[in-house]
Amino acid sequence: MQETRQRIVFLDYLRFIACFMVILVHSVEPFYLGGEGTLIPSWSAGFWSTIIDSALRAAVPLFLMASSYLLFPVKQDTASFFKRRFIRVLIPLIVWTMLYALIPYLGSEGEIDRIDNFKRLGWNFLMASGHLWFVYMLVGIYLLMPMLSPWIERISKREEQTFIGLWAFTTIIPLLRPIAEAVTGSPNVWGECSWNEFGTFYYVSGFVGYLVLGHYFRVHVGELSWRKTLAWAVPLWAIGYAIAASGFWTRMPKEFPVSAPIDLAVEMETSWYFCSLGVALTAVAYFLVIRKITASGRFYRNIVLPFSKVSYGVYLLHMFILVPVFAWVNSWGLPVPAVMLLATTITFVTSSIIARLISLLPFGKYIVG
């Protein structure tokens, strides 16, 4: 009970929910990614990918807001902060990156090129471990935290609101680029060009906005009633979801099967970008609601809390489980949404058990964080 009192309970629920959302995103992807890059086999696959995935893209922003809520501004000296993050984040990343480079997915066809994998590791994540892009980005956010901490402590509430408003404007830019291209022939805006990607709003855009949002919620948003929470969260979520879903659906061809290079899928995902308006609005809505979940009874102590402690490990390892599980479940001939949800649930539970067992090892923290 003492440990429960010391924890921020809603953040444990947030990790539980957001991790399930991430795995569900990866269970949706096979229904519109494949072949040359884009492969949508049927109307049902396209429809359910739109309906389900449009509600899930806020998972990554939620993780960032949770980290900010806990760590920003940094209270310890910079060296201690980086040392702790290195042990907690980077060492497990290195371990699992090596495993993805060496071990093929269960049931996959063909050999993996381990030598080529290790050549690539010095430059980026592997295609087999594409979900690890998030950790690279997170490390970048950690590098910024000590430098931005004096600034966030010094500015007023109004100044912080001004920054958030400016950042919110940048979330519209992905939606404006197609308009700019139609008008000018180029998607570049406000100083961007072929020799300069750092336009006017570059330095106030991106994931740093979620860092500031997490701090704003902790410092400036007091306890809200359920009525007031829902009064804000419901319209924010509805507007954000409408933007995310309509953007994907309208960009998707309607003659099935759809088979095209990866460029089409990238274009379809424009309204799903993590730093785009629709996703940002749904992220704020989810955070408002999850913030109200503070029950610390049996379900929390026996399920949510143990999971939260190994959630990073679940994220790191889950693709090893999901790929064969998805192939297995998809062979049963179930409806598309049932395949998505069942594959996610099996993967979520199995990955959680494995991560928990690893954490009990003497060196477990170096593997699952």
Q: Could you list some keywords that capture this structure?
A:
single chain; 369 residues; mainly alpha; 3-stranded antiparallel β-sheet; 3% strand
Would you mind describing this structure in some detail?
- By secondary structure, this protein is mostly helical.
- It contains 17 helices and 3 strands.
- Strands 1-2-3 form a 3-stranded antiparallel beta sheet.
- Strand 1 (33-34) and strand 2 (37-40) form a beta hairpin.
- It starts with a helix and ends with a helix.
- The mean pLDDT is 94.
Short description:
The protein has 369 residues and is an all-alpha fold. It has helices at residues 2-6, 9-28, 43-53, 59-71, 78-102, 114-121, 133-154, 157-170, 173-184, 208-220, 226-251, 262-268, 277-290, 298-309, 311-330, 336-359, 365-368, and strands at residues 33-34, 37-40, 258-261.
